[in-house]
């Protein structure tokens, strides 16, 4: 580590400890670090805006002929009239323009990005979500090489001497099995017959194109639940006419379906009860009052989740700074002493 790098490391540690000193009480060292941070941030933002906005998006395009950009340039310049007590009213035109345009764009983006998708997901109860999930498995079967009249047997013997061969012209029954462990959230899952896939991984010197074929046969697979909590899927196959010649590795995938009906009902109840809580045109009594109380529970749960997520992010930052102090800063003592 060079002297400059060591100086930077100690400066970072000083600023970090100076900011942490506020946990004891407000002090001059903390205020110095705070002012340095605020000054650097403001200076960086001014430089960034000057380069990326004023030069790249205003001045340079105007020089290239887009003269109409002087209109937003003038509106931006009028913002500085806020510093004059006599002419500060002029800045209201620019502020009104910015607020109107921003509000219009923000409302449309929020409508299409949040409101309409949430309304759709709330009104349309999705009873299931279908997706194929490949779980960690242990295969008990060997790879196979499907051969035909075009296969170079001498090259095959030299490259894959131990691989089982199956002749497309005279196929034999091939049995393989895979064992996988059920996930911990299996109470919310329904398992269906696995999908058996044979994925081609072959040498291009034997055959130019990559051979790959999926076999879907829900009825030909047997599931066995083992005493150790694993499930073994056994599959037998004897029809290889549709496969290209090449090396194949058996693989079993599991198709699982998530039961979303209960979650959809909870979402509907939460949305409706929360909207009723903010309905102030009628007194919250009777059924309306009970629904409003349910709504406040959903609001508190949402606030708690957001607060917990925010705290988790701050704790992650704290862990990062503590790791820096313990590992990098304390570790640099060896180079000083």
**Annotation field: number of helices:** 8
Number of strands: 11
Q: What does the average pLDDT come to?
A: 79
Q: Which percent range describes the beta-strand content?
A: 15-25%
Give a structural overview.
- The chain is an alpha+beta fold and 337 residues long.
- Among the domains are: 77-121, no CATH class; 131-259, no CATH class; 262-317, no CATH class.
- The protein contains eight helices and eleven strands.
- A hairpin with a 4-residue loop joins strand 9 and strand 10 (230-237).
- Residues 125-137 and 187-219 have low confidence and may be disordered.
Secondary structure elements and pairings:
Elements lengths: L2 H18 L7 H36 L6 H9 L12 H33 L4 E6 L3 E3 L4 E4 L5 H7 L4 E4 L6 E8 L7 E3 L3 E6 L12 E3 L5 E5 L4 E8 L8 E14 L1 H17 L8 H44 L3 H4 L1
Parallel strand pairs: 3-4
Antiparallel strand pairs: 1-11, 2-5, 3-11, 5-10, 6-11, 7-8, 7-11, 9-10
Helix pairs in contact: 1-2, 1-7, 6-7
Keywords:
single chain; 337 residues; alpha+beta; seven-stranded mixed beta sheet; four-stranded antiparallel beta sheet; 11 strands
Question: What's a quick, concise take on this entry?
Answer:
The chain is an alpha+beta fold and 337 residues long. It has helices spanning 3-20, 28-63, 70-78, 91-123, 153-159, 261-277, 286-329, 333-336; strands at 128-133, 137-139, 144-147, 164-167, 174-181, 189-191, 195-200, 213-215, 221-225, 230-237, 246-259.
């Amino acid at each position: 580590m060079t002297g400059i790098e060591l100086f930077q490391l100690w400066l970072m540690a000083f600023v970090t400890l100076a900011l942490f000193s506020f946990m004891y009480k407000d002090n001059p060292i903390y205020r110095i670090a705070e002012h340095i941070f605020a000054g650097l941030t403001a200076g960086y933002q001014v430089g960034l805006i000057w380069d990326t906005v004023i030069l790249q998006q205003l001045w340079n395009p105007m020089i290239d002929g887009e003269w109409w950009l002087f209109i937003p340039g003038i509106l931006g310049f009028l913002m500085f009239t806020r510093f004059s007590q006599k002419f500060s009213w002029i800045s209201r035109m620019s502020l009104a323009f910015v607020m109107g345009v921003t509000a219009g764009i923000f409302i449309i983006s929020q409508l299409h990005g949040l409101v309409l998708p949430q309304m759709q997901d709330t009104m349309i109860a999705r009873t299931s979500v279908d997706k194929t999930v490949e779980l960690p498995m242990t295969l008990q079967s060997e790879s196979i090489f499907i051969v035909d009249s075009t296969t170079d047997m001498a090259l095959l013997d030299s490259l894959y001497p131990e691989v089982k061969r199956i002749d497309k012209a005279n196929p034999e029954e091939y049995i393989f099995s895979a064992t996988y462990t059920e996930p911990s959230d299996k109470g919310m899952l329904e398992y269906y017959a696995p999908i058996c896939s044979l994925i081609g991984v072959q040498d291009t010197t034997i055959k130019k194109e990559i051979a790959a074929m999926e076999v879907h046969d829900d009825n030909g697979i047997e599931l066995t639940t083992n005493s150790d909590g694993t499930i073994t899927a056994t599959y037998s196959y004897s029809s290889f006419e549709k496969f290209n010649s090449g090396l194949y590795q058996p693989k079993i995938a599991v198709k699982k379906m998530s039961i979303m009906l209960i979650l959809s009902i909870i979402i509907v109840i939460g949305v409706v009860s929360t909207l009723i809580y903010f309905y102030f045109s009628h007194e919250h009594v009777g059924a309306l009052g009970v629904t409003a109380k349910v709504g406040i529970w959903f609001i508190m749960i949402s606030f708690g989740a957001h607060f917990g997520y925010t705290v988790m992010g701050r704790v992650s930052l704290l862990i990062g700074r503590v790791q820096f102090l313990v590992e990098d800063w304390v570790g640099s003592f060896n180079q000083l002493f």
